[in-house]
Structure formats: structure tokens, C-alpha cells
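Would you mind writing out a protein's amino acid sequence and the numbers that encode its backbone to help me picture the idea?
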Amino acid sequence: MTHLRRALWLLFLLTPFHCFATSVHDLTNLSVNLNIYPNDGTGDNLGGTIFGPGVSLTVGGGTPYYWFNNVDGFAPGSGGGGSTTIFFDSVFGTIGSKSYDPSDLFIDAATLNAGGFTFPTDGSGFTISVPASIGLIVLTGCTDTGCRTFNLITRSGELTLSFEYDAGTGMYYGTGGSFVTGTTPVPEPGTVSLLILGLASIARLRHKKRATVRGLGLF
């Protein structure tokens, strides 16, 4: 029995650690560009990209039927928009230097936090934009060497939804929409160099001015 325990302990020590634990990596400041279509009851009405430093992913999924549809519609004066759940069901792309196929990545549902609005009562189609953001998106990538969990942290943006009015039914029906975040501009290398030279020039001028003032006995 003692020899068996020793053999099991040795096997544990020789087994790579990644077989027992999943590492977690936070990927921050990511941008999102999603197209949103009305849910006609079949789902899968959303798709687009998540991208940023070291990340380029294509995702697909859907929102609940009641949140944005073109079948039952929405009554004038009723409330629309607001927060909902995005049920992601597909994802592929690159993270760092690694490319992942859809069979390698698994993505959890996430919350779309968005402002609400009221449908107009004037009987005309309209488009509305409200501030919005997506909560934490948890992604798991698995390969032959083990699994990694990625926490995708995206930037805030704007949700835009469009509706048409049907005079026959007296209801509004979704026609399309999007969720888009802002992107952080990265200065050109030449711009950064000019900025550094400019700051250095200002520093030299200040030093020269102080030296002149001291020479005149004014400082």
C-alpha cells in the first residue's frame, strides 16, 4: 500500500499544473460593434465583433423575444429598451498570438445595460439612441495544453434601435439596431516624438530664462 501511495504522489508531482487549474486573464478596454436584428421567435438576432489590444473576436447570439421583435410589436406609449440579456452562442477569432475555432471557445451570457424609452403616440416610425454597456463577458478557451478563462471587459457605448409604425395594427415593430462603443485613439509614433521634443524645448527655454534672470540679479 505504501508503494502505491508513493507512486500516486510521484504521478501528481509530474503532472503539469495546467491539467488541474484554469488560468484567468483580464482583457480590458475592448471595443464592441454589434448589429441587432428583430427577434422573430427563432433567436440568433445579434452578431458582430469584439476587438482591442490583442483581441479580435467574432460573436453571435440573441436577445429575448419580448425585448426587440417584429411580430407582436409594441403599443404606442408603452416602455421599450432597458437592460436585457445577450445569450452568446458562437465565438471565434484570435487572442494574443493564438487563433481559436468555434469548437475551442465557450462564451457565457452577458448583461446589456441600457437606458429605456417610451414609444411615441404620433404614429410615425422612429429611431432612438440610449447610453449602454455590456457587463463582464466570460470566455473559456481550451486546447490540447489546457484551458484558459478570459474576462472580457468592454467600453461603454450607445444602443440604437429603429422601429416602424403599422397603422393597420396600431403597433410599432422593430426594424434594426446596433450597439457600438467608442475607441481610444492611439497617437502616431511621429506625434509622440514631436510631443517629447516640444516638452524638451519648453524645459530648455525655462532653464535658459531662469539663468538669464539670475545673471541680471533679478532672481
Q: What stands out?
A: Helices lie at 2-14, 189-215.
